Amino acid sequence: MKGNNKDRLFQWIAGIVLTIGGIMFVLPFIWMILSSFKTESEVILIPPTLWPQDLTFENYKNLFANMNFAVYLKNTLIIVLFAFFGMFLNAMAGFGFAKYNFKGKNGIFFMVLATMMIPSQVTMIPVYLILNKLNLTNTMLGIVLPGLVGAFGIFLFRQFMTTIPDEIIEATRLDGASEFRTFIQIILPVSKPILAVQAILAFIGGWNSFLWPLIMANDEKLYTLSVGLSLLKSQYGGNFALQMAGATFMVMPIIIVFIIFQKNIIESYTTSGLK
């Protein structure tokens, strides 16, 4: 009985500590969201207020009227769409490594995995020089092209597709289906769990794209939301209400996606384990 009481007491203490820690972690985000609906004079009040005294949407109107956030949003969505297309290419590559036997298969796959150990900052200058030779700098194609495929995505798809029974694929081939049709109608529907996970990660990566668009784009018409948020901070550094609106507009989709699909995101990393 004493042991059970100690365990319950420990659980209560742990629960209280975690609850307090969770509130402290979430409070800045709540304050940021609520402050985006405040006037500038209310944001700088000391002591600060949590709930807006005068609810206003003027900060969000200014984002689109004065900061071209509509253009940044369009560019970000284009990058996200290309990220989804790249996910399809990763799935095809993963399927090839998982179910086809060809000369140098293991060596090529290990080379793909080796690229995961190279920091992206190391390859930025060579990639930039290559795209510059192709006259793709300051273009949307130059922004999205280097990120179409990735070693981590190929690895995840390969690991998952190795678990698909070969008998299913052989049966579709005996029925006269082409390889591409087999991939589209058999492999992709079976791979819905990993597709969902990769779609979430592709969205998060595309939505948060900052450094590469900043390097490649000289024209503000090609900037993304992350770059626009950086401009907002530099141009309107004293307007904290406007900055809170920009940060909220940038962060809220990511928070919503993570809350809804956090289980799938966590499972994606366990799926990457060797089977």
From TrEMBL:
InterPro entries: MetI-like, MetI-like_sf. It is found in: Cell membrane. CDD domains: TM_PBP2. Residues 72-261 form the ABC transmembrane type-1 domain. The chain crosses the membrane at residues 12-34, 77-97, 109-131, 137-157, 194-215, 240-261. The keyword Oxidoreductase does not apply. Pfam families: BPD_transp_1. This is Multiple sugar transport system permease protein. Belongs to the binding-protein-dependent transport system permease family. It is a multi-pass membrane protein. The keyword Membrane applies. It comes from Paenibacillus macquariensis. PANTHER family: ABC TRANSPORTER PERMEASE PROTEIN MG189-RELATED (PTHR43744:SF12), ABC TRANSPORTER PERMEASE PROTEIN MG189-RELATED-RELATED (PTHR43744).
